[in-house]
Design a protein that fits this description.
Elements (H helix, E strand, L loop, with lengths): L3 H6 L1 H10 L6 H37 L5 H32 L19 E6 L12 H8 L4 H8 L9 H19 L3 E2 L5 E3 H6 L18 E3 L4 H6 L4 E4 L5 E10 L18 E11 L4 H19 L3 E5 L11 E9 L4 E12 L1 H6 L1 E4 L5 E2 L2 E9 H11 L7 E2 L13 E2 L1
Parallel strand pairs: 2-6, 5-11
Antiparallel strand pairs: 1-8, 3-4, 6-7, 7-13, 8-9, 9-10, 10-13, 11-12, 14-15
Helix pairs in contact: 3-4, 5-12
This protein binds one RNA strand through helix 3 and helix 4.
Length: about 425
RNA sequence: GGAGAGGUGGCUGAGUGGUCGAAAGCGCUGGUCUCGAAAACCAGUGUACCUCCGGGUACCCAGGGUUCGAAUCCCUGCCUCUCCGCCA
């Protein structure tokens, strides 16, 4: 959510900002409602002041055993006027709120303007080596090794699901453990949080109302399956005032992620790179505003650390404004190179939301001057399993059809060094 | 799922229609005292909004309602606790 004061004081800045995200919210309409709202408040507060004063006099008279019919009659009329204005104020505020919740966060100045084609690669790591044999895509090598069964998953749940078996499932568990161990030893607190959350939590992190169609919703209770544990982690601190001493808060968790992927039919449908349910390790930081961009860099480095440990080539891009998600002010995408599908696969998005989510969640902190302020929130995958496993099956594939286990994972695999 | 009890400031807790934004205690901040600390004593101690910058309004879980007037009465929702049922 944006600050209404910012809209009032810098409407052109906001308009320019949301235009960079191709958003067409009518800012002038909001400002008009805001003016209307303030006019109503001015009027109704004056009336309420009068009512309070006279009601006090009524109380005094009654106590003294005097009549106060005149005052009561006059205040009845004032009261009616007040409830009319109260209603009007509620209506205006509701209309305003319903517009405000659709405004995306505005991009940071360092974000390139434009669509996906304007994303900027800021660094690359590792060497893309061409193997001297034909590398099979993960769905083929996975089936051959008996560790991946997409057909069975399709029977159970329809398209967009996968089953890992035996050492495939074991590999996933090893990766999760490796990532959690890495992040916790770097200061992140491991959290095991709910996978089903209220609409209010989805609103807090900015998934609702805009992304409602991309999520699974329960029919009886209006609960949502999390599309990422960012939702559970960040909302741990909603409707709360933190102490500055508690910051920065660093959290990490492993969870399944559920995504309807509405409108993505036919896109990257083979294998496990685009599915309705996948596992992910997610990092979230809640930090002081002044430090958030610095903290975004270290969070991104933390995600990169995993890929470096696994020796998988990757690149980091700054997303252009049009490619940014609804709530993000700046985002780095990490993409790894998968040798079988011969493509860059998005493996992590590290974003700074500034105070956008904090406002929606009403999460605040008391700074050293005891002033209550909104902190900044940051998150990033560290990393997504459904793309990491394909990359390992492809990049670590051998000519004989076996797959070598990355060295750092061997201890997590009871010493197993190779599948197949 | 059934029955009951309850949600008041940072915390404990009083308040059942009229000077209640809310007693008291604790905590916290400042001061006196002290070499310093503790104790004692004194003072202060919420947030948001509107403003013609004088001040005003709102907030006692949330949202409605009754009333001249609501922390207090009514309705709805959420949450917590106790007992029963069910259950990995």
């Amino acid at each position: 959510m944006l600050d209404i004061r910012m809209l009032r004081e810098n409407p052109e800045l906001v308009k320019a900002g949301i235009a960079k995200k191709n958003d067409k919210t009518d800012i002038d309409k909001i400002l008009q409602l805001d003016n209307e709202r303030r006019e109503i408040i001015r009027e109704v507060e004056q009336l309420k002041g009068e009512r309070n004063k006279v009601s006090g006099e009524v109380a005094k008279k009654k106590k003294a055993g005097e009549e106060a019919d005149e005052e009561i009659k006059a205040m009845k009329a004032v009261g009616e006027k007040i409830s009319g204005l109260d209603q009007k104020q509620r209506d205006v505020e509701r209309d305003m709120h319903n517009l405000m919740i659709w405004i995306p966060n505005i991009p940071h100045d360092s974000v390139p303007v434009g669509g996906e084609e304007n994303n900027v690669v800021v660094r690359e790591w590792g060497e893309i080596k061409k193997k001297d044999f034909k590398v099979l895509p993960h769905w083929e090598i996975g089936e051959k090794l008996g560790i991946l069964d997409i057909a069975a998953a399709t029977k159970i749940s329809g398209s967009g699901f996968y089953i890992l078996k035996g050492l495939g499932a074991r590999l996933q568990r090893a990766l999760v453990a490796y990532m959690l161990d890495t992040h916790t030893s770097d200061g992140f607190l491991e959290i095991a949080a709910p996978f089903i959350v209220t609409a209010d939590s989805m609103f807090g992190t900015g998934q609702l109302p805009k992304l409602a169609d991309d999520m699974y919703k329960t029919t009886e209770d209006e609960m949502y399956l999390i599309p990422t544990s960012e939702v559970s982690l960040t909302n741990c601190y909603k409707q709360q005032i933190l102490d500055q001493k508690q910051l920065p808060i660093l959290m990490v968790s492993h969870s399944p992620c559920f995504r309807r992927e509405a409108g993505a039919a036919g896109k990257d449908t083979r294998g496990m790179v685009r599915v309705h349910q996948f596992e992910k390790v997610e990092m979230v930081k809640i930090v002081e505003p002044e430090k958030s961009y610095e903290e975004l860099e270290t969070l991104t480095a933390q995600a990169e650390k995993i890929l470096q440990g696994l020796q998988i080539p990757y690149r980091v891009s700054t997303l252009a404004s049009g490619d940014l998600s609804f709530a993000a002010a700046k985002c780095y995408d990490l993409e790894l190179w998968a040798e079988g599908v011969e493509r860059w696969l998005e493996i992590s998005s590290c974003s700074n939301f500034e105070d956008f989510q904090a406002r929606r969640m009403n999460c605040r902190y008391k700074d050293s001057d005891k002033k209550v302020r909104f902190p900044h929130t940051i998150n990033g995958s560290g990393l997504a399993l459904a793309r990491l496993i394909p990359a390992i099956l492809e990049n670590y594939q051998n000519a004989d059809g076996s797959v070598t286990i990355p060295e750092v994972l061997v201890p997590y695999m009871s010493g197993i060094e190779k599948i197949g």
